[in-house]
Design brief:
By secondary structure, the protein is an alpha/beta fold. It has 8 helices and 12 strands. The protein has helices at 11-22, 44-47, 65-86, 106-120, 136-144, 162-173, 192-202, 239-244, and strands spanning 2-6, 26-30, 53-56, 90-96, 125-130, 149-152, 156-157, 179-180, 184-185, 190-191, 208-211, 233-234.
């Protein structure tokens, strides 16, 4: 198949491109750095020529809700409109578990807008909601670290390996549209603060961790809120196995 990956140079996008190419598919990489701009639509029509499926693994790292909604909304509208013009038969969106249970978080608000546009859009779709990735704790400490200390919310998560996410996206894209896919998650629950500590140790980094609910992850995300729902698809890679690769 000829399959396009939006966000192809990002963490999940890069792994998804590799998974598709290993399976013998013709992959079109969509990224601003490669000359295709989702914020303007520039280059999209040419990129999607002959494409049968699109995987949207785009990301936004800002903390302003209006900016997140605007970014995801604009990019998704351009991607869907170009997909319709090109005759794309399957639009696969990577989303987040619990996206409709969390209020006030910019990223979740943006993803909700993205989901709304996809479900109401012109291209047959599958939405794949994933739990946080195994490298999520390291990302959080990277965002908050100042003078050798980082704040981390004591979230309960069931993280999934980025490579497992990519493999599932590649698999889903080659099949028929399924609507909302079951949550995908890793095999074990973990505390995010402990994940951050162990990741830093594995990478040889010394960072003092300060557990706190002040910041982008509030108490509305505490307890079981971020865990996968019933019938989730459990990916095989444990956090320990992923961590062993970081050493």
């Amino acid at each position: 198949m000829r399959i396009a990956v939006a966000g192809a140079t990002g963490n999940i996008g890069t792994l998804t491109v590799a998974a598709l190419e290993r399976a013998g598919h013709d992959v079109v990489r969509i990224s601003r750095s490669l000359g295709v701009d989702l914020s303007t639509g520039e280059g999209l029509d040419a990129a999607l020529a002959g494409v049968e499926a699109v995987i949207d693994a785009t990301n936004f790292t800002g903390t302003d809700p209006r900016e997140a909604v605007a970014y995801f909304g604009t990019a998704t509208r351009h991607l869907l409109a170009a997909g319709e013009r090109a005759g794309v038969r399957h639009h696969v969106l990577l989303s987040i578990t619990a996206v409709h249970r969390v209020e006030g978080n910019a990223h979740y608000m943006g993803k909700r807008e993205q989901e709304r546009l996809v479900t109401e859009g012109p291209v047959p779709w599958t939405i794949v909601p994933a739990t946080q990735f195994h490298d999520f704790a390291a990302m959080v400490t990277g965002w908050t670290e100042r003078d050798g200390a980082a704040t981390v919310a004591p979230l309960l998560v069931q993280p999934i390996a980025p490579a497992d996410v990519a493999g599932i996206l590649a698999e889903v894209a080659t099949g028929s549209p399924l609507g909302r896919y079951p949550d995908i998650a890793g095999p074990e629950t973990h505390d995010l603060v402990d994940m951050a500590r162990r990741t830093n140790e594995a990478r040889g980094r010394s960072v003092r961790l300060v557990p706190t609910w002040s910041g982008p992850f509030g108490t509305g995300m505490a307890g079981n809120v971020l865990l996968p729902g019933p019938g989730a698809r459990i990916a095989p890679t444990t956090f320990d196995a992923w961590l062993a690769e970081q050493r």
